[in-house]
Amino acid sequence: MSVLQALTDAIRDSSVEVIDLTAPLSAETPIIQLPEPFGNTARFGLTEISHYDERGPAWYWNDIVTGEHTGTHFDAPVHWVTGKDGEDVARVPVTRLIAPAVVLDFSAEAAADPDFLLEIEHVKQWEAEHGPLPEGWLLYRTGWDARSSDQAAFLNANETGPHTPGISVSCAIWLAEQSPVIGLGTETVGTDAGAAHSFDPPFPCHSSLLGAGKYGLTQLQNLARLPVTGAVVIAGPLPIVSGSGSPCRALALVERS
Ligand code: MN
Asked: How far is the CA of 223 from the CAs of 20, 54, 95, 187, 215, in angstroms?
């Protein structure tokens, strides 16, 4: 049997499960809030064109408003100044949009400390247990998706800024330069920690990974339903010409025995 016939049969009989890693996209979807003087992104919005009415008797449709980085979305290398000569989102090769994924679960640590940072030693310990990181996605589970229906809880900001888990400077550089991963997927509003504005250099995941031609996937959900290894992620950003990223449907294929 052909590989693709076997795959579609397996999806139909649920021996391969399809898990949606995407947050619902609505006006309530949390968005990042940068302080003055920086610009901010748009909330998702729908503007009705017609709804089976005099504007269009048999059809319903809307215009949409969205930021490229609104909701579950894909960061292309050009999003960051370190990647300014890299791929825009329309130029990301489609073969890179289907890739194996592993899950590093630090939800207990993030529950105890919202500023928890993943370190190189955590990743090396994970590799000692589960094998080397793939040429694919590192999906960093923190449990933050449980907060995604509440902007305040999701951003978790106080007078010192947002407090959400992330990755240390040294680990971000190591993932960018030493590891085979093609990208980092997180459950938080961006790939960097909430406090990463104060890191040296700031926003190390954006700076290092996008600068190395790698990608980001953020505001993912349902990572708890994935195996530690063995899932395949299909990420579908829109091919926005010259775009820095795009809202993205992210699906995972998981083999069930
Ligand atoms: Mn982004």
From this structure: 9, 44, 22, 8, 18
